[in-house]
Amino acid sequence: MVATITSENTGSNCYLIEEQKKVLIIDPNQPDKIFRLMESCGWEPQGILLTHEHFDHIEGLEEIRKKYRIPVTASRSCSEGIQDEKRNLSSIYDMFVWYQCGKMWERRHPAFVCGPAENTFEESYEFSWQGHRFFMKKMPGHSAGSAVIGMDDGFLFTGDYMIQGAAVITRFYGGDEKVYRAYTKKYLETIPLGMFIYPGHGQPYIYTKKRSAYEE
Amino acid sequence: MTNLEKYNKAFIRNLGVKKEDLPGLKYRGIPQWDSIGHMDLMADLEGEFEIRMDTPDVLAFTSYEKGKEILAAYGVELEEQE
Question: Which of A54, A55, A85, A94 to mutate against chain B (most B CBs within 10 Å)?
Fold first, then answer.
């Protein structure tokens, strides 16, 4: 099963893939919520996968690592990005929350960095876990370290691509519109109908018509 | 490089405008200075001048000229170097 935890601050989705009470965590956002769910279900965390380096997708990373001591897998560029407060955009945390949710804190949220991922890849990485086949494929454009994560040919975790009703943003620091159009957009256009899409924001959905991957 | 030059270059770099476009430039006055452009610009200015603006100031930073006033409150003087 796939459980979703959505951050009320940033709107980001963390996904927990559970099989036989073992869990992979994708894009850890709010550690308190993740800990509660894991403990109430008696789940055992086994690893963390990252779709990209932006703060809203790694906000809980260090706290979860500290508690669970589990390895993180990400593209090399993502691993570099999480260690850099400019690349992970945590310096604009408050502005992002304001524009996203209309919330404002009196004091600025401190910028932060994370330690490097334990497992990194350049272009793609494949592995098996609990009888499922996974691949991670680098998809630059939204950020330099962005990747999609596929499971069993039917499930795709897309980070900040393919968010329903939202155009892909390539203008943040580290984004690249030309690279997105030349490479990532072409890949997204090949995704078959019927795929279960788990985006980094908004509701998961079944890809039933050609749309948000290349929505302008 | 003077503070004013750094200030101008941050606008030029993040919003894709020319130096002659800067006077009178306003938030949402051009497509590039939307919320995303604003976040990029603010982060760049904070890094450039090694400051951390309060959120109300970030939101009040609504024009090229207003930004100078706000940065002055953080000890970044721009006008006298022109």
Answer: A94
